[in-house]
Amino acid sequence: MRRALNTVSKMANIPTPIPYLKLNDGTSVPMLAYGIGTAWYKSSAGGINRNTVEALKTAIKLGYNHFDNAEAYNTEPEMALAIKESKIERSKLFITTKVYSNVADISKAIDASLKRLQTDYVDLYLIHSPSFAKSDEDLQKAWNAMEDVKKSGKAKSIGVSNYHESHLKATLATATTPPSINQVEFHPYLQHSSLLPYLKTHNIAVSAYSPLTAVTKAKPGPCDEMLALLAKKYYVSEGEIALRWCIDQGVVAITTSGKEQRLSDYLRAMTFTLTPKEVKDLAEIGTKKHYKGF
Predict the structure, then answer these.
(1) What is the pLDDT of residue 203?
(2) Which of 26, 77, 169, 181 could cysteine-pair with 205, CB 3.0–4.6 Å?
(3) What integer pLDDT is reported at residue 14 of this predicted model?
(4) pLDDT single digits (tens) 158-178
């Protein structure tokens, strides 16, 4: 996939450059994101979870600048409060959110998300899942509404999540503006061997949720030995190897934690690169097991 370039964030006065990936619409996205999904999910809207706010403030303090939200997580108000209390300029952050339950009225949904986020725009707006669609026409109608959101300036970039090739083909058939990114579960045990080449052909970037699966929920597994060897070689944790494995393939990695030390450690994944052979070997070993968490 397309590789990216610059940026500098800081943690404990140690430079930890987070690379950026240039998208097909000319914008650039930080390749390490803090996810506000699984760990912070609220079953219903209303009330503020101070633990979520404090975790987000910690991430901002450490230098994370890409935050992955969704209306379905019910945590957009926490994101807004964390930005306000951190006293950080909105322009220094890359905010993603997604539409799910209100996909039938995307124009209304984006306005509601912006109100909850207390911002005039999001950097990236995604359709959370294609599950709403009963036909290709449903996918196309929704994408047309997403294009209107981009034209309005309420989202700088637009994309999709959990889309398979069939969903993308239907969407692209009538699209004026193609999706910039497809967010999917991605790790050594779920590599989407046909989907990723398709996305690359159409210049659609990939972002990965659950990139740490091989070192968490899917352990033990065939990648364990190589992950441990690489962690020892680069003086980092196996989780940082898993994040770097994504980034070195041009895939945006989304992770999360409520622990400051762990978040700080994840930034070390920005300080080294795996060799092409290491990336390839880990991928090949990963094909020996299939694991889908979501």
Answers:
(1) 97
(2) 181
(3) 52
(4) 999 999 999 999 999 999 999
Cα angle 115, 59, 97 (rounded to 5 degrees) comes to: 35
Give the Cβ contact number of residue 131 at 10 Å: 10
**Averaged pLDDT for residues 56-70:** 95
Q: Is 73 a catalytic residue?
A: yes
For residue 41, what pLDDT is reported? 64
The structure tokens listed for 164 are: 């398979």
User: In the structure encoding, which two tokens stand for residue 112, read together?
Assistant: 């509601």
C-alpha to C-alpha distance for 140 and 172, rounded to whole angstroms: 8
Distances from the Cα of 168 to the Cα of 24, 196, 203, angstroms: 15, 12, 12
| Beta-carbon count within 10 A of 140 CB | 17
- pTM for the full model? 0.91
Nearest to 149 by CA among 168, 124, 172, 173: 124
Q: Taking residues 254-274, what's their average pLDDT?
A: 92
Q: How many residues are there in the chain? A: 294
Q: Looking at 17-21, 81-85, 227-231, which range is the least confident one?
A: 17-21
Of 20, 34, 66, 128, which residue is the catalytic one?
A: 128
Maximum distance among all Cα pairs of the chain, rounded to whole angstroms? 52
Render pLDDT for 41-50 as a digit per residue (tens, 0 to 9): 666 677 888 9
- Enumerate residues 6+ apart whose C-beta is below 8 A from 155: 110, 121, 122, 123, 124, 125, 146, 149
Catalytic residue among 20, 34, 64, 73: 73
Please list, residue by residue across 96-119, b when 16 or more beta carbons sit within 10 angstroms of its beta carbon and e when fewer do. bbbbbebbeebeebbeebbebbeb
- 6 CB neighbour count, 10 Å cutoff: 9
20 is catalytic: no
